[in-house]
Write a structure and sequence with these properties.
The chain is an alpha/beta fold. Helix content is about 40%, strand content about 10%. The protein has 2 domains: about 5-45 and about 290-400, Alpha-Beta Complex (Aspartate Aminotransferase, domain 1), CATH 3.90.1150.10; about 65-285, Type I PLP-dependent aspartate aminotransferase-like (Major domain) (Aspartate Aminotransferase, domain 2), CATH 3.40.640.10. It has 13 helices and 12 strands. Helix 4 (about 100-110) packs parallel to helix 5 (about 125-135) and helix 4 crosses helix 9 (about 255-265). The radius of gyration is 21 Å and the shape is globular.
Amino acid sequence: MPFLSATLDRVKPSPTIAVSTKARELKAAGHDIIGLGAGEPDFDTPQNIKDAGIAAIAAGKTKYTAPDGIPELKDAICAKFKRDNNLDYAPSQVSVATGGKQILYNALMATLNPRDEVIIPAPYWVSYPDMVLLAGGEPVIVEASLDTSFKITADQLEAAITPKTKWFIFNSPSNPTGAGYTWGELKALTDVLMRHPQVWVMTDDMYEHLVYGGFEFCTPAQIEPGLYDRTLTCNGVSKAYAMTGWRIGYAAGPEPLIAAMRKVQSQSTSNPCSVSQWAAVEALNGPQDYIATNNEVFKRRRDMVVDMLNQADGVTCPMPDGAFYVYPSIAGCMGKTSPGGNVIKDDEAFATALLEEKGVAVVFGSAFGLSPNFRVSYATSDDALSDACTRIQDFCASLQ
């Protein structure tokens, strides 16, 4: 019999991690590479948060904790949901895991049966469909478009729901597009969900605090209280607090679901890192002013990148509402040939040729379920972004 699980045949490795790894390898080998693939702030973790982690080590808070989080962190998460989203949760409704990815995975593993369907708007974060597949479910992809600013409509959501639909995964602001749903746009979606009581909502709010230009974040259970009992509101400290490596994600939802997720986690990783949990307590309870300061930097970078990419031949780059990504269309580049002899037959070919010929690493759009596009992370220095965008302009101008 085969040694490896047949389930692995349903999934693929993370393309974003693969691009970042290749860029690092080429750079280590002496190539002039600018990596725009990683979804990671280039800011250091704020000092007060680092100090809290150091203090936890010094105090010997390095033992096992409860499988899904220390009481102090659950209290801080409850306070955050009330403060930021006007959502009331008790600590028994909160789960803490080793990053936001594990939160989503635990929920899917705890709830999906074979052939259960999960609606995922595209463009999507690369891991959503594969996590559904690993858990035995079936992803149902609903494609947005540039014409709708990469947001699906209520009619599209309605058409995708079947008796087999168990979850709707919702991400705003979006990875990879940075698109954010307004209150009215999200209310139209929640109105649809209210007509289908078998459908649960999984919200990925990881980029909640990274919004620009007056955009106001909102989350489904905040807009429609009727969805409270079938919504898992997911978040984490990775992006807004520059804590990607600390690996703390969290969610709040109905107690039976949280208990089921706890069971999954107790038999996989058990508790998240104890030191990271204490640092996350400080992140959520401590000063929040640096978020606005960092956002001003991100906004400046966003504006520069959008302006420069829209000057590239064959490229159309919409202005995102949040996160730190842009998702330009390269429809005008399709079918052309690069100076290196690479035919741009799709966005993966574009990204490969751009890396080989200009030393710029981006993630191709098909990884996110919508082509022909590519994703740029502008969570890096202004100089690197300016240099990279100039190289992209030169590359596009050279296509014949």
